[in-house]
Amino acid sequence: MFIYSVKATTLKFAAVIGAAVISLAAIILLVPDYTPQTTAAIAQTVSQYNYEKIKTNEDRVAFLKQFGWEVEGEVKEEVTLKIPAEFDKVMKTYNELQKRSGFDLSKYKGREVTRYTYKITNYPEYDGEVLANVIIYKNRVVGGDICSADVEGFIGTFEYPRDKLKDENSTTENESTSEGSESDNVNR
User: Fold this and answer.
1) Helix, strand, or coil here: 186?
2) Which of 18, 45, 141, 186 has the smallest CB count inside 10 Å?
3) Each residue of 49-70: pLDDT tens digit?
4) Domain encompassing residue 101
5) Among residues 46, 47, 53, which one has the least CA distance to residue 138?
């Protein structure tokens, strides 16, 4: 005959573990799927642009144009580079910028890509030189940015800065409204 004795503390411990497992399972089953708003917004934005079959200079220029950018026709710089196998702090920060655009360069660690740089000619409210970098892997855009060539410049995504465009439009509207009001006053 086999006799096994169990202390009350062992039973309490098993009961607590069992309750925790049941609670966790209930939470997983009852909580609905959650997709953050930012992820959904990025997916919607990314789906409206063409990132595939970018083979020629004209394709790259057309790619940038779909975001609203105008560039000098010829590529300013073409560089083949290797995405690092391990990301340092700078590369991690740059990849976070890429993720805001729906890209993820960590998928291309250790691979050779080509970066094409173009001079932007229509960046609003900025007098310095602005560049567009388009990163291509196997005829597909896998990353890139819009940046200032100045030391104290900026870097951003491919998205055209709509807030600056709104400022320009509201200024134009205000000016035309003011002019319209003056002409209305003269006609009265």
Assistant:
1) helix
2) 186
3) 778 889 999 999 999 999 999 9
4) 50-159
5) 53
Q: Which amino acid type is present at position 176? A: S
Q: Residue 129 has which token pair?
A: 């030189």
Alpha carbon 57 to its chain centroid, in Å, reads 23
CA angle 152, 158, 163 (to 5 degrees): 75
* Dihedral sign (CA 165, 156, 102, 73): positive
Residue 171: inside a domain: no
Residue 43 maps to a domain: no
Report the SS3 class of residue 5: coil
Tokens of 96: 């976070």
The runs of H, that is alpha helices, within 7-125 are 8-30, 37-47, 57-65, 89-100
Q: Name the token pair of 38.
A: 């930012």
Overall pTM > 0.70: no
